[in-house]
Specification:
Number of domains: 2
Structural class: alpha+beta
CATH class of the largest domain: Mainly Beta
CATH architecture of the largest domain: Beta Barrel
Number of helices: 4
Radius of gyration: 24 Å
Helix content: 40-55%
Largest sheet: 5 strands, antiparallel
Number of strands: 5
Order of helices and strands: HHEEEEEHH
Length: 211
């Protein structure tokens, strides 16, 4: 039986470094987009090529640097390969009824071998013939990313050892607070991006006033 434990907290220094890196990318990336859009608008309104070039150059430089940085980071520390784990079906609900293959939304408890169990919602297409294999309380095999816990994919045809484990190893239900969710853009980041777009556009308007 798999024990459910609390997640190991991320060190504060790593959180601060990640937040600082995100803020820098947000400032330069979104600001350059605002400058580009304003430059193109001014070029069409004038018409003149100088605003377009002034907006395009910083946009191209900033995003080229961001792409290079991202590739270097991925090369230095590539993301871990997806792993297999057992999962318990807590609930299921068909979200469609056309044809013999129907999408089924499932609430799962995923129990990695070397990490705490967590909850997750997945949608998987199931043939009507195979639907009894996905009953509530059944143990199945899934594939997940150990660094983000998302996305989680159900393995339709696991190997024999994993089939044997699914048939013999019972799982506990993970608590609701362990639920993994897809990454979203929080409200403060949306507001900051809007302000940075406006800032970039304002700089272009001051540099090439249309009045």
């Amino acid at each position: 039986m798999v024990a459910v434990e609390d997640e190991t907290p991320v060190p504060l220094g790593r959180k601060a470094a990640s937040a600082a890196g995100f803020f820098v990318r947000l400032v330069f990336g979104v600001g350059s987009v605002g400058a580009l859009l304003a430059g193109l608008a001014l070029a069409l309104a004038e018409p003149a090529w100088e605003p377009a070039v002034a907006g395009l150059v910083p946009f191209a430089v900033v995003w080229a640097l961001l792409v290079i940085r991202s590739r270097r980071r991925d090369a230095a520390s590539p993301p871990p390969a997806p792993r297999l784990a057992l999962a318990r079906i807590e609930s299921r609900r068909a979200t469609g009824s056309e044809g013999v293959d129907i999408p089924v939304r499932m609430d799962l408890t995923v129990a990695p071998d070397d990490a705490p169990a967590f909850r997750v919602d997945v949608t998987h297409t199931v043939n009507l013939v195979d639907l009894p294999d996905y009953r509530v309380g059944a143990t199945i095999v899934v594939r997940y990313r150990p660094d983000t816990l998302w996305p989680v994919d159900i393995v339709d045809e696991p190997t024999t050892p994993w089939n044997d484990r699914a048939a013999t190893e019972p799982l506990d239900t993970a608590p609701e607070h362990t639920r993994a969710k897809p990454p979203t853009i929080p409200g403060p980041e949306v507001l900051a991006a809007t302000l940075l777009l406006a800032t970039g556009a304002t700089i272009m308007l001051l540099a090439f006033p249309p009045w």
